[in-house]
Amino acid sequence: MSGVIVTGPPKAAAADVEALARYGVATVSEAMGRTGLLGPEIRPVQQGVRIAGTAVTVLSWPGDNLMIHAAVEQCGEGDILVVTTTSPSTDGMFGELFATALQRRGVRGLIINAGLRDTQELREMGFAAWSRAVSAQGTVKATGGSVNVPVAIDGQVIRPGDVIVADDDGVVVVPRERARRTAEASEAREVKEAGARAAFVEGQLGLDRYGLREKLKQLGVTYQSYDEYTAGERP
Questions:
Q1: Residue 156 clears pLDDT 70, i.e. is over it
Q2: Distance CA 218, CA 211 (A)
Q3: Coiled-coil stretches, from where to where (predicted)?
């Protein structure tokens, strides 16, 4: 497998990345019309951590982390490394030594559509990571691949410079051209949810706030007392 290492790709504006960092993955995805999620199998190795940054992408051969070594050189302050493989893999392609090198360069975290290891060490050093698998299985450095090219995870395309937001709920990608308006839409959604939250604290029901009683009626859902519901079961 041959490949290419692309240098200096365009990136989302830092201000837009920081604006998106204020919001959770669910909010950002909803703000984009329920798109951008990298799927439920990409899970965090820590809890209570949210990061946002610009993607540096890696396409590797399964069980081979050569291109991650190549990608480290292309990473800088505010980036998030996004790794996938040409076919499914759960091998532990990333660990504490990689994290040390990336942390030194200001990288905010890792998203890997494969396996990683040294999870305790990653948590202790505060390096955030999301992965498809955790595995102690080692890898080789023998096959070419690519860095900073478009890659796909669970049907979502991630390009270098796109915004990645990750938290306990998973990972979402925001195309760099949509970063600002997605941040604005996320803010509007937060304001709307704050109003709903306040109403629910006061005791209002979602059925009434969202006008769902009429929806139930349209769907043919009826209310019956317990006695009415069980009348046909009585001897």
A1: yes
A2: 12
A3: none
Distance, in Å, from the CA atom of 1 to the CA atom of 149, rounded to the nearest integer, reads 15
Nearest to 143 by CA among 180, 89, 106, 103: 89
Task: Supply the pTM of this predicted model.
Answer: 0.94
Whether the per-residue pLDDT at 234 is higher than 80: the answer is no
Confidence of residue 1 (pLDDT cuts 50, 70, 90): low
CA dihedral 58, 112, 54, 128 (to 10 degrees): -140
Comparing CA positions, the residue from 140, 192, 166 lying closest to residue 158 is 166
Amino acid at 118: D
% of the chain surpassing 90 pLDDT: 97
Could you tell me which residues come within 8 angstroms of residue 223 by beta carbon, excluding any fewer than 6 positions away? none
* Tokens encoding 74: 């292309």
At residue 187, what is the residue type?
E
Q: Which helix (H) or strand (E) holds 88?
A: none
